[in-house]
Backbone:
């Protein structure tokens, strides 16, 4: 039976319905955004399509973050806003998806075409009759844009938008004038599968095969693989670094297989964290350029063949590009999502999925016979600590590493948590969601909501398929999926920016763990700019734990953690391990405390790096001796050690 027959669709359906079915075929079942006059008929179609749901966010910016988080779990997210006011509110979120290679379909409900043609001064316009202005603004942060006007080809336009967002892993802008929502198309067009590069989710239509290459293309790939293998076989100290492109382009399984097959020392960048199993014997930790732990830095710096999979090579993955410059003279094999660079020689139009598939087929382990030594990746605090110590970041991350479970999805925020999480080893199948390149404060709460919806769907889907393919390339079974918890670490500063979205979590009975790091303001900034007026990094101290009353939650738990003993008691509590309710845990930390790895390395970096010395204020970090002189406005009475 065809898709249209299976779903008993009318012969002709509206383009809005067509769009909903196309998303449903990809198992994209939750749509984010806020209603507005110009998108209302479209939202009605979402409600009318079986299996689709409208999340209904508390504000637009958060909806864009949620869409981003959802997409990172499922390969694509869909966001609907209204003309002007709504669409402009999501720009920071959409730009973040652009920067971080996250596929998003952003649909904008536009005023009717007649109003546009007559240039009427409708509400939500700039009052100058320009109806293209917002489209123009958005076009620089989209890989493709389309306004749906043409009734004959509108279904093809919709297909192209979805294919572009999925294949390019970037935002796509799709404007639908409110009077165009009901353009009619043949439902049978839905029977033809979309043209997607990779599809790791079983669609309702059918499974897609691996891409078949023509002879010439196949030959070109063989040539490049020969070059890569030659470099690898002739090197003595190869290492693998996994960057963000691996998870975004859904080749985590291939990356992990390559790591296992080669046995080379392997690392992830902060943006690549969570994309490969950190428990394979040759996983050696997080590579953060010169901010890396000394033994990590030494291994990568002394390698004569650095293979970077899924390159993005952003600032924090390279620590201000140290890695990039230092390795200039070595055999660098940089595999980008759509190109390859071998020793600085670029080769365009090579898809990472195919490169990895061929590398796995052709790599011969017997040609690299050397045994590699590996390093201890676990960061253990230097002292044994008693329970009455007040908390410091260093200990927080160490304690949490004992509490994480396989499959956990850990969302962290720009600020200290995104750095802290890199200090610890993840359990198998744990996934990390953060935004280290774009770094928009407040992202994590919205993203956490998106992840919660995605996990909720993945659990339901697992009821249909006993074995389910996840976006990280793994196949897991029903039981594993039921156990996946969603854990958010968010700074108090970021919390004050985006906390409305907790209300959406409550509304949908979603059950995340939210760990709020209360250090009385913007600590990383306070630390880096210690010579300027510190009060600008302060925030109003809220009664955070009362928030669920405001949002009308019924099933929730709150805790305040002040000492190491409090933390240890919480993580050993068996009932706390089960994510059966929404939880907010306020963790009290000193105001100038940031993860020590970051602190110490930043100081050293600043002393050594020419790039940083040339950059005046941002990297104005204190010298070690100055740290103790910094004002400490720790919430609570007692002194931290
Ligand atoms: C949208 C946005 N506005 C401002 C900033 C600058 N900024 C960087 S971190 C930060 C807040 C950090 O405070 P918090 O979330 O409490 O994290 P902490 O540094 O205390 O760990 C801000 C405002 C930003 N990154 N994004
Ligand atoms: Mg803070």
Residues:
């Amino acid at each position: 039976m065809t898709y249209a027959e299976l779903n008993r669709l009318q012969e002709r359906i509206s383009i809005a319905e067509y769009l909903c079915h196309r998303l449903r075929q990809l198992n994209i079942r939750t749509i984010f955004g806020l209603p507005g006059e110009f998108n209302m008929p479209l939202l009605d179609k979402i409600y009318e399509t079986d299996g689709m749901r409208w999340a209904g966010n508390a504000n637009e910016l958060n909806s864009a973050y949620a869409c981003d988080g959802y997409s990172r779990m499922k390969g694509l997210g869909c966001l609907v806003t209204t003309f002007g006011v709504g669409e402009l509110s999501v720009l920071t979120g959409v730009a973040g998806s652009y920067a971080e290679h996250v596929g998003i379909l952003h649909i904008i409900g536009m005023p009717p075409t007649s109003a546009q043609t007559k240039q009427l001064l409708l509400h939500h316009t700039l009052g100058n009759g320009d109806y293209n202005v917002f489209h123009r603004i958005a076009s620089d942060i989209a890989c493709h844009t389309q306004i749906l006007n043409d009734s004959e080809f509108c279904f093809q336009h919709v297909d192209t938008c979805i294919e572009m967002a999925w294949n390019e892993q970037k935002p796509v802008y799709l404007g639908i004038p409110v009077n165009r929502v009901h353009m009619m198309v043949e439902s049978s067009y839905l029977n033809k599968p979309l043209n997607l590069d990779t599809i790791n989710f079983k669609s309702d239509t059918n499974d897609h095969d691996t891409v078949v290459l023509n002879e010439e293309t196949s030959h070109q790939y063989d040539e490049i693989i020969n070059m890569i293998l030659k470099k690898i076989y002739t090197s003595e100290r190869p290492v693998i670094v996994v960057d963000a492109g691996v998870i975004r382009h859904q080749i985590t399984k291939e990356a992990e297989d390559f790591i296992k097959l080669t046995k080379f020392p392997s690392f992830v960048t902060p943006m690549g964290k969570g994309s490969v199993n950190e428990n394979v014997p040759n996983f050696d930790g997080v590579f953060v350029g010169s901010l890396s732990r000394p033994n990590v830095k030494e291994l990568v710096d002394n390698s004569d063949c650095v293979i970077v999979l899924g390159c993005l090579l952003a600032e924090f993955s390279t620590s201000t590009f140290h890695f990039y410059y230092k390795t200039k003279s070595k055999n660098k094999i940089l595999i980008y999502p759509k190109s390859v660079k071998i020793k600085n020689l670029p080769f365009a139009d090579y898809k990472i999925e195919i490169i990895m598939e061929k590398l796995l087929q052709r790599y011969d382990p017997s040609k690299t016979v050397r045994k590699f030594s590996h390093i201890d990746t676990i960061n253990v605090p230097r002292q044994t600590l008693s329970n009455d110590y007040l908390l410091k970041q260093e200990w927080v991350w160490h304690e949490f590493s004992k509490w994480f479970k396989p499959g956990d999805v850990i969302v962290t925020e720009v600020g200290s948590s995104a750095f802290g999480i890199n200090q610890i080893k993840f359990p198998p199948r744990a996934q990390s969601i953060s935004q280290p390149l774009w770094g928009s404060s407040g992202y994590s709460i919205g993203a956490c909501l998106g992840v919660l919806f995605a996990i909720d769907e993945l659990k339901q889907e697992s009821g249909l398929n006993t074995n389910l393919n996840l976006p990280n390339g793994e196949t897991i079974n029903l039981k594993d999926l039921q156990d996946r918890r969603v854990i958010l670490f968010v700074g108090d500063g970021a919390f004050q920016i985006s906390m409305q979205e907790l209300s959406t979590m409550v509304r949908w009975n979603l059950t995340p763990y939210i760990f709020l790091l209360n250090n009385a303001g913007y600590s990383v900034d306070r630390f880096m700019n210690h010579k300027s007026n510190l009060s600008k990094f302060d925030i109003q101290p809220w009664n955070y734990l009362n928030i669920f009353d405001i949002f009308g939650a019924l099933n929730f738990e709150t805790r305040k953690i002040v000492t190491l003993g409090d933390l240890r008691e919480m993580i050993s509590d068996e009932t706390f391990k089960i994510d059966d309710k929404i939880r907010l845990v306020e963790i009290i930390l000193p105001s100038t405390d940031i993860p020590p790895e970051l602190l110490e390395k930043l100081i050293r970096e600043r002393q050594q790096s020419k790039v940083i010395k040339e950059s005046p204020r941002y990297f104005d970090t204190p010298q070690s001796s100055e740290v103790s002189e910094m004002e400490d406005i720790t919430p609570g009475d007692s002194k931290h050690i």
